[in-house]
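Data deposition worksheet. Section B asks for the primary sequence of the deposited chain exactly as it was used as input, without tags or linkers unless they were present during the calculation. Section C holds the resulting structure in token form. Section D is free text for depositor observations; keep each observation to a single sentence. Incomplete worksheets are returned to the depositor.
Section A, Depositor: J.P.
Section B:
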Amino acid sequence: MAKRSTFREYLEALIIAGIFLGFTNTFVVKTFFIPSASMEETLLVGDHLFVNRFIFGPSSSSVEETLLPLRRVERGDIVIFRSPERPRVDMVKRCVGLPGDVIEVVEKDLYVNGNKVDDATYTWHRDSRVFPNRSSVPDQARLRDNFGPYTVPDDHYFCLGDNRDQSYDSRFWGPVPAHYVKGRAFMIYWSFAGETSDGVWRGWGHKLRHLGNTAIGFFQQSRWGRTFHVIH
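Section C:
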């Protein structure tokens, strides 16, 4: 039998590795970065995350949940999902409401099914103002501090940012369809305090400048203390 060339062996290895990485990124673990302050202080702008794409599974089959390490989304999960307004854009928020839950925000306090949620360990309110629940108040302010009561529809989740006063979330654009959820954020693998992309494509020139600035500031502006930090 003729020996395969070294080039062919390397090529086959690269193809197999590419297929494996593509499968992993699509179905098991995906990476994601934080472009905005809506999840501070839990997640900072420039945090780069590992996202578990497998945990919620492809369906709600009880057989799959028994045989495989799958589960449904739970309250408190930090989830990555497609934006209900712009489905090509991914977002990250905390799930606070499950299908059938009644959600209400009263003067910044969150209530689920009539019970006040003790979320002081992860929720931040940086604006001391509380806007009244009046029709004369612009929706952007009124809904921020007073919302509902609202019943989460079947196969949907209600998601809020931890930085409640600076988060554009389900209070404004509604619940997240279950099939939009991509996975759960579970670990920060790198955090960068320098310039972070907002995800908007501005051409190769801007991309190369951004990569150059990142390389120059990599050691000084990396938040090494957040490396491999497990997300809660």
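Section D:
The CA atoms of residues 125 and 164 lie 6 Å apart.
The chain is about 25% helix and 25% strand.
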